[in-house]
Amino acid sequence: MAAKPSTTTTAKATYSPIDPTRKTRPPIFSGSDVDWLRPDSRGFHQCRPAFFRTGAVNSASGSAYAEFGNTKVIVSVFGPRESKKAMMYSNIGRLNCNVSYTTFATPVRGQGSDHKDFSSMLHKALEGAIILETFPKTTVDVFALVLESGGSDLPVVISCASVALADAGIMMYDLVASVSVSCLGKNLLIDPVLEEESYQDGSLMIACMPSRYEVTQLTVTGEWSTPHFNEAMQFCLDASAKLGKIMRSCLKEAASDEQE
Amino acid sequence: MGSTDVIASVKAELGRPSAMQPDKGKVAIFVDCSPTAEPTFEGRGGEELSAELSSALQHCLLGGKSGAGAGIDLSSLVVVEGKVCWDLYIDGLVISSDGNLLDALGAAIKAALSNTGIPSVHVAAEAASDEQPEVDISDEEFLQFDTSGVPVITTLTKVGKHYIVDATLEEESQMSSAVSISINRQGHICGMIKRGGVGLDPSVILDMISVANFVSRQLMDKLDSEIAAADADEDES
Fold first, then answer.
1. On chain A, which terminus has fewer CB atoms closer than 10 Å, C or N?
2. Higher pLDDT, B19 or A166
3. Distance CA A236, CA A248 (A)
4. Is B200 in Cβ contact with A202 (below 8 Å)?
5. Coiled coil where (chain B) (predicted)?
6. B81 assigned to some structural domain
7. What CATH number does the domain containing B217 carry?
């Protein structure tokens, strides 16, 4: 059962529109054998098409815009900038992350405050990848703004942030690709949508550096038996390797566009 | 645990269940780091750590958004479905910090929950469907909270090439990364958080899970026997 994330990155901004007609929801709470039809008719092991574009914000050192289905995120990176005078001297650089939701991002206005811990999670995910020794005494600021929350927000934010950091020219060991998997009954769904997330029995989010095969951030909620967990982890790692390739190709395109 | 001292308390209040889960109660977990533990915790200093610990505990003990897989059985908290439920506020206070705060808090919360008695509530007969029904809280009868499903948190700290369990403050200062795993009695993982920046090889993580399984079993047995002993003491006095 290999994960097969389907992807499209075209130079011109188009993405496959999602079928707006909603399939009728089967009763979730009846028995453990749930036959869940995904609203956008993907297979259980299919990721949403990923779209990345760098250079979204002109005034920032680096920026990126990512769109995974309905989840739209914009990240801008400022720095390395002088650390505030109040902070102590440090001979390695500092990373400052902030994730915020627009008020119109969620179906119910202003619900983004549920996700206050995303900033620290983003920090931990990126910390292991950035070579902090290259910018001592300075701070790199990463600001993420979720424009629309369509499920699986944090993984998209992390992936977009690493593309933005690459765009800004910050030295990193590797790009950080991140994928999350939801568990509904016995089924594993990769890259859940908001609706699937609200019904999930458990979730696993992994942020990893594909070429180094190292996990920088890992979050598990819900009850998992060990073999089930192994399976889910293998899925995520495989999917993030493929996502890493897409991120790389997007960056190469952007670089080659500039050269022309 | 060693020199780490934490206090956990559980308070219950009547409230309305959320619209999305009318048959489940609500639990909120907050952690406060007192300056008696570290002078840097005074004022806003300890806020970051508190927030991190609170969210880690919520991840580990509360399970997915649909409420399934939660360590704490939320459906036992409902009084009148859709209208009245118990809100549990779990507060943790760190008094002395010598490393491994998360494990200590997890154990304290488990013990506090096992000591919790929810007063039984009598609901007055048929109120109109959108009014709050009259409830009469009895001071006498208590329902013991069921904690056999509550998981125990084990933190494995990676220092250099080895990983250790139950790190003291000194050991934590040298850590490259740490993984906190919460495992329940059946050996299933209820939650897992990775703290610290350095990347970890996935095989290392799998190894850590099996170690955590082993250690948490011992910890759970010890905890249960301690709680039973404490309860027996209380009944006598």
1. C
2. A166
3. 18
4. no
5. none
6. yes
7. 3.30.230.70
